[in-house]
Design goal:
The complex is a heterodimer of chains A (about 550) and B (about 325).
Chain A lengths: L2 H21 L7 E10 L2 E11 L4 E5 L6 H8 L7 E6 L2 E3 L4 H6 L2 E4 L11 H6 L12 H15 L14 H14 L4 E5 L7 H16 L3 E6 L2 H7 L2 E6 L2 E7 L7 H9 L19 E11 L5 E11 L3 E5 L6 H9 L6 E6 L2 E2 L5 H7 L1 E4 L3 H5 L6 H6 L9 E2 L2 E2 L1 H14 L15 H14 L4 E5 L7 H16 L3 E6 L2 H7 L2 E6 L2 E7 L5 H8 L5 H10 L1
Parallel strand pairs in A: 3-8, 3-9, 6-7, 7-8, 13-20, 13-21, 16-19, 19-20
Antiparallel strand pairs in A: 1-2, 1-4, 4-5, 9-10, 11-12, 11-14, 14-15, 17-18, 21-22
Helix pairs in contact in A: 5-6, 15-16
Chain B lengths: L4 H28 L7 H18 L4 H29 L4 H12 L4 H8 L13 E2 L10 H5 L2 E2 H19 L1 H11 L1 H6 L4 H27 L11 H11 L4 H23 L6 H20 L1 H6 L16
Antiparallel strand pairs in B: 1-2
Chain lengths: ~550, ~325
């Protein structure tokens, strides 16, 4: 696009926006957007978006990654200034030049990356940078009492004296919300707040948000999770490709997840549910673990007596609250972490403990949870990342030398096959979450593994990327790969897995048949309980 | 009573510990903001040289000469620290490299010796020396008298500094902001704290304190000039910040301990105990090694950790 054309576009849009802004009333809204337009070179991120939140409601802003949600929120909170259109607070036009001005108007945003200082306490973080009241002196006890009072009102249990670094992610999120309310927030914008939470923590969050709304404050809930939106929100505005593609009042109309998905993606979404293996787990076992234990760096035990087996073409789901040994289990199998005791065998042959190279050579592929640190080297190109694990293979080079053309040729094949939006030279860190995950999967699946260990493969991805990733996993299983699917999303596990193993505090609490398992039963096992029927099933499988 | 070994040693601890307290608190503030300034020694030497030159060439009453000399030393240290802050905060240069550069610029083989040679500072002994004050007339009390009530203004000032520094860090909002800037500048910035301003201000305060600490050598301990008069005290001040786990109260205790150890060699020698002096001059560094091991051990890591962003340049754009 030529620069002058770009300017003309913007001028024309501005004219349109002004007429829109004049025509639309925004009387009772706590926060409203009228004809918001924001262009970045080559992209129209927001295109005449209308949006409004009334006091006392939880309003969902739903859209895929790249649909313009984030840009809109950055405009609403003063990080960006719109090219055209108006932001109104209580019906009055405002022109925020910085987040501080938005704070002053009572609009706060809770980002996915928290702005909390780990070694400081909750109370210290709550007043950090807040100079409007309190003056020079910092009266710790006073602030702690005030924070406790707000926390009480919202049923957000958090100790104001606790150090942030000792809190769980869910508790830290509560501190972010408390911080906003302490500073007099009347409209709270939360950017995909449940991504980092366990189901229980998410429920707790919903209760608190509901309380805020009942007290007359407004909540904007950004999400791409359809079930959450229909469970929590009063109204929903759906964005697609920078435009408002629809809105609905969920209290009046019955809009199901499928309908919302159609608004979001513009077509029907089909999540594949697996047709189960007729005899799950009865095929020849690919992975067998018996009595496997492992310890942490400081010697504390993270895995205890793990007994698991996965057959060819089987998907075994590993369910559990984050941090209960899932990472250790994945690392022990892939050789990243040595086991303290027990045996791991692949196709009946034992694999040495703590030997990544052996694991790779024997056909164990790994899609780690930490996509951009462990899964990919962010500073290397897509081609280099593809070659990372396979560079020893003869087709990639001659002797000690790598053959650049062959690596690029191979990468181009995979880019097409796995539908990666990027080129061989694109740096990994420039890829979106969905594309980065496609590159990891392309590398791992194309290595023709016997066993594929995948950890939270769809976390943070939008529905269409999720659809693709799930499809890839199912295709791999159908091709006979044994898959260990570690996920905190129970719905995903139940959709994909043949059997579900539940882990708690480093122990397998039980193994259930996915067809018969119900969510409550799994939930109980996740919390460390033991259900009689679950135990029985586990015994039967072992 | 007041001539016993104990009192003599404690008095020496205060005498030699005071410049360590001054420079140490200054460096502690800089490090709390995330800036490690390895050039403390250079700022001290420059403070020592400029203060001595000022006091030697000043015509007028002694107390004015001393006040002006201290102000000049503080200003010199501040100016050097400002240059340093510009390179590491604004230009985001490596703090190690910039700190060593500052050391070469102002240190024993650099500007401080040059100033001393053009001012011919080594020719005469000092005209002025900071007097001791006994504000309550209690200097003759046993043991505590000479220690608490018979000191010069910089000693009293250093005590006030420690108290104010502790209150500032933990009981004021700027102190809270300072800790946040040193731990996690990104979050502090997001909460509206001006990271750059805090780093400049506290690094420059550290420079002022280092300059005064240098002046203490030429105006209080021994009013004359020899090159490298601080003899590595700047490094000990940096070590003290670590051994005190970035806490002002502990830094004072540590500084006096180091002061005692420094003086132990010649105090014992004058009393007929003959041990190689190298043992005593090595002691501060041995203490430092023990402390550093403690800080980085599993036990210390959770409790006594250094400021999280210490040594890291900050830029809003970096992800």
């Amino acid at each position: 696009m030529q620069p002058h054309e770009y300017m003309e576009d913007r001028e024309m849009l501005k004219m349109i926006e002004e007429s829109v802004a004049d025509s639309a009333p925004a009387g009772s809204s706590a926060l409203a957007a009228r004809g918001i337009t924001k262009a970045f070179p080559g992209v129209l991120a927001n295109d005449r978006i209308d949006f409004d939140v009334v006091p006392g409601e939880v309003h969902a802003l739903l859209g895929e990654n790249g649909s313009g949600k984030t840009t809109l929120c950055k405009i609403l909170t003063g990080l960006y200034r719109p090219d055209a259109g108006l932001v109104l607070v209580d019906g009055q036009p405002v022109h925020f030049r910085s987040p501080a001005e938005a704070y002053a108007a009572g609009i706060f945003m809770v980002h996915q990356h928290f702005s909390l200082v780990g070694p400081l306490t909750v109370a210290e973080n709550v007043v950090l940078g807040w100079t409007r009241e309190g003056g020079f002196r910092f009266n710790r006890a006073d602030v702690e009492d005030q924070v406790a009072a707000v926390a009480e009102r919202l049923e957000m249990h958090v100790d104001p004296r606790a150090q942030i670094s000792r809190l769980s992610v869910g508790e830290r999120q509560r501190v972010e919300i408390l911080k906003a309310l302490y500073r007099g927030a009347r409209t709270l914008i939360l950017d995909e707040p449940t991504t980092v939470l366990t189901p229980q923590e998410a429920d707790q969050l919903f209760i608190s948000l509901r309380r805020m709304a009942d007290a007359g404050e407004s909540v904007v809930f950004i999400s791409h999770k359809l079930d959450e939106v229909s469970a929590l929100c009063d109204r929903v505005t759906v964005l697609r490709q920078g435009r408002t593609s629809g809105s609905a009042d969920l209290r009046e109309e019955r809009v199901d997840a499928r309908g919302l998905a159609r608004l979001m993606v513009g077509r029907d979404i089909h999540f594949e549910r697996r047709s189960r293996l007729a005899a799950a787990g009865e095929g020849a076992a690919v992975l067998e673990m018996s009595g496997v234990s492992a310890v942490d760096e400081d010697g504390s035990r993270v895995l205890t007596d793990i007994e698991l087996s996965i057959g060819a073409g089987e998907i075994l789901g590993l369910a559990g609250v984050a941090g209960n040994g899932q990472l250790a289990l994945a690392e022990v199998i892939t050789g990243v972490r040595p086991s303290a005791s027990g045996d791991i065998a692949l196709d009946g042959e034992p694999i040495p403990s703590g030997d990544v190279r052996a694991a790779v050579d024997r056909g164990i592929a790994y899609v780690p949870e930490d996509r951009m640190g462990t899964g990919l080297a962010p500073g290397l190109s897509v081609a280099d990342n593809i070659a990372l694990k396979a560079f020893r293979r003869p087709e990639y080079g001659r002797g000690p030398f790598l053959s650049r053309p062959r690596i690029e040729e191979r990468t181009n094949v995979l880019i097409t096959e796995f539908d990666v939006k990027g080129t061989v030279d694109t740096l990994a860190r420039q890829l979106s979450g969905g594309n980065a995950q496609r590159v990891v999967l392309a590398r791992e699946i194309s290595s023709q593994p016997r066993l594929l260990v995948v950890a939270t493969p769809t976390r943070g991805l939008d529905v269409s990327a999720m659809e693709t990733i799930r499809g890839l996993l199912i295709d791999a299983a159908d091709a006979g790969v044994a898959i260990l699917l570690i996920s905190e999303d129970l719905g995903e596990i139940l959709d994909l897995a043949d059997r579900v193993a539940v882990i708690c505090a480093g122990r397998i609490q039980g193994v259930l048949d996915a067809e018969e398992a119900d969510v409550e039963e799994i939930g109980l096992l996740m919390m460390g309980g033991s259900v009689e029927r679950a135990e029985g099933t586990a015994d039967a499988v072992d | 009573m007041n001539e016993t070994l104990l009192v003599t040693l404690l008095a020496a601890g205060v005498l030699y510990g005071t410049p360590l307290v001054l420079a140490g608190i200054g460096e502690l503030f800089a490090e709390r903001s995330g800036v490690m300034n390895l050039g403390v020694e250079a700022m001290m030497l420059m403070g020592a040289a400029t203060a001595f030159w000022t006091s030697q060439s000043f015509d007028g009453p002694g107390w004015i000469a001393l006040t002006v000399s201290l102000a000049v030393a503080a200003a010199t240290g501040t100016a050097l620290a400002a240059i340093y802050a510009f390179t590491v905060v604004t230009l985001r240069a490596s703090q190690i490299v910039a700190g060593l550069a500052l050391l070469i610029l102002g240190g024993a083989t650099g500007l401080s010796s040059y100033i001393a040679s053009i001012g011919d500072l080594a020719r005469d002994t000092g005209k002025h020396r900071l007097p001791d004050y006994d504000p309550f007339g209690l200097a003759d009390l046993p043991v505590v008298g000479p220690l608490l009530f018979d000191q010069n203004i910089l000693v009293y000032g250093s005590w006030a500094l420690v108290v104010i520094a502790s209150l500032y860090l933990y009981r004021t909002r700027p102190g809270l902001h300072l800790r946040a800037v040193g731990e996690d500048p990104k979050s502090a910035d997001a909460m509206g704290v001006n990271v750059v301003a805090y780093r400049y201000a506290h690094t420059m305060f550290g420079g002022a304190m280092a300059g005064m600490a240098g002046a203490y050598y030429t105006l209080a301990i021994a009013p004359n000039w020899v090159d490298n008069i601080t003899a590595g005290a700047g490094w000990i001040a940096i070590a003290l910040v670590i051994t005190s786990f970035w806490r002002p109260g502990l830094l004072l205790v540590g500084a006096y301990l180091f002061g005692i150890v420094t003086s132990l060699g010649f105090t014992l020698q004058t009393r007929g105990v003959d041990l190689p002096s190298q043992i005593f001059s090595a002691m501060p560094y041995l203490l430092t090694i023990v402390a550093v091991v403690l800080v980085s051990s599993g036990w210390g890591r959770g409790r006594l950790h250094p400021p999280g962003a210490l040594g890291d340049p900050y830029s809003r754009e970096d992800a």
